[in-house]
Amino acid sequence: METSQLPIISIKNLKKSYGDKQVLKGINLDIYPGQVIGYIGPNGAGKSTTVKVLTGLINDYEGEVLMYNQNIQEDILAIKAQIGYVPENAEIYDVLTPLEYLDFVGKLYGMDEDQIAERAMKLLKAFGIDGNADQRMDTFSKGMRQKVLLISGIIHNPKIIILDEPLSGLDANAVIMVKELIALLAKEGKTIFYCSHMMDVVEKVSDRILLINQGEIVADGSFEELKAGGDQTLERIFAKLTGKEEGNQEANDVLSALN
Amino acid sequence: MINKYIINFILLFKSLFVRFGVDPNQLRIILNTKMKMDDRRPNVYNQQRKKQHKEVNNSSWLTMFFLALTGLVFTIILGVVKAPYAAHTIYFSAFMVMLAITLISDFTSVLIDVRDNYIILPRPVSEATFTVSRILHIGIHIEKMAFAIAISGMVFSFWQGTVSGFIFLLEVLIATVMSIFLVNIIYLVVLKITSPQKFKDFISYFQIIFSVIIFAAYYTLPRLINASVLANFNIKEFKVLAFIPPMWLAALHELAVNFKTADGLTFIYAALALITPVVSLYLVIKVLAPGFNEKLSAISASGDDATIVSSEGKGASRGFMNKLAAIVAPKPIENAGFKFTWLLSSRYRDFKVKVYPAFAYVPVYFLYFGFMSKKGSLAQNWENMKDGNMYILLIYLTSFVLTTVLQNANMTDKYKASWIFFTTPLKQPGEILAGMYKAIIIKFYLPYFSLISVFSIIFWGPKVINDLILALMVGFIYGILVALFRVKGLPFSQPVNLKKGGRVFISFATMLVPVGIGFLHHWAAKWEWVITISAILMTGAALLMFNYYRKESWENLEMAD
Asked: Residues B399-411, buried b or exposed e (16+ Cβ, 10 A)?
């Protein structure tokens, strides 16, 4: 790729502390257009904090974050306009209908009403919930809400898409569909930042995997590279690098605690 | 849609907003969406609909109707108090307090909607747009309420004269703006100086203190401030009141109706009334708002994960609470119910906000019924109270605390977590309930009752001891009755505000129990031996009732859907 010369996101020595607890201990990272980054790590490793910095939700950090070669703190609004974000905790205004919600989100991105309506309908149809377009979401299942959230993250056709556990609550068919979608979006030149605990999915969708542990990136490369010729699953590599190799032992401990 | 016109009206001031760095299109859609959501949010007045699974529409209009009724009461002050300066000061004090309460109770659902952090903030919305939309949203919300409260006063003022009518409109507008900014500034300042976790606690304690003050004022002020005194009194003599905004507003009215006799002070007050809203707007947007949003996201980010290490929670068998639980509720299931109730009642904020004010209500009720409501001078009533047996009223009033705790102990916003009761092989839920009841008695009722007892013994002498024992036992029995007939649910297992229809009669009947027994007690108090024997009998009855309560079965419980 000729564009790969210029990183779309560039993180330099990013540090962040909450009180005296340092959550990020100097992250250095260059991400190029069209990459699907699988961002993995154990609970509390600093994944969410990284995502919050990238989406502009956290401003007081040390180090530098560049997007399009521009410091994100300079014009965070222009950056936010380029990002699509699907948060992990599935917060949504559930007394609205999907169409009303998408209209709201679309307008915050400065889209016009007709364009939003047209796209929203097409997207809802593609996700198979067009029949519910005018129902309030407080009766929706978790999977249906997640679909609306996914749509609200891509409706403005962003260049960078940040997905935090986007598959939670989705049924098997929807999972296949989203995985396909990620591949297609990447082909279009979108950059995708994919955070998840589901190793098998990360293994399949990402072309570059970043493993963060205790605020530091401990592995960076394609799945092939991480395997380094061995015949391991991502799960195993994850366990090894985060120092929990003896998973077997822990399982045994659990069992012995019951006896 | 009226909402649309309101938004169009606000956007007439587009150029002003743009100067503050607000995107008018985003502002419009945020306001529009927020107002739509307000109309669909179930509230106190339309739970019934929600329960019938009907969609809630126009809920804000129903609220307005009830506020208009309250406003009518305030208007009576305007009519009754003859000195307009004083009347307007009182009216607008009541008005601003009413609005501030509405604002504070709506605060968590409207002003700090934590979902905004995930839905609006990641989008390209500037901090100015976000803050202004938030302020305007709450502004419109309150302005609607203000209109509802003021409508009757407005009619009254226009009936008095066109000038006073228009001045009244101006006063309402300024009073509203000042209420909004007052509360806003309080919150912004608190957010600046405390940590996010403490902020949530602050809001709850603020709500508690506030509701107590309002309650006390409602019962005692009318008695203390005699309307006939007010008619002839010059409110301007009270220099302390100069700091109260309603005073400034009243000055506006005074200027309009008594321009010739107005003194310099009145002019200063009137000027303050006009300047303050502008200054507060500037302060909020330019000085306090920056950084507000980040603080807000910190609130939701930190959530409740702050390490709550309390003395109760240390290990499974250490600490005061655990030792206590082992002694008073040794059976495993009862023990679980006891600890569960004890711990959650100190950690759920919604529970604390609803229950704690009840502790303060008792002395207020006592003072009110004890001597405020009676004819004659206060000093005379005070003497009467000391000689008589008013302590009986006081000790029976404590059952109000017990009822409040019991009624709230089975409700929480997080009621869904109660699935654990239904998936575990719990044969007789009465055992959990027995644990719950013991926890409530020991944690809330006994300490409070002891305090009241010590006070009574000091004040009325040791002859009240047998009365206290009797009242305590009656309290236990009454509590069990409440638990059996009104609060039929496992601890913290039901959604808040679920109206219990069809049992008005029973709840009324249970309330009659302490009242009736209290009167009997009052009547029998002259024979000490009757009280002593009754105390013994009631102790037996309480034990029997408790054993019955412990056997409560699933069939008698109410469960959330």
From this structure: bbbbbbbbbbbbb
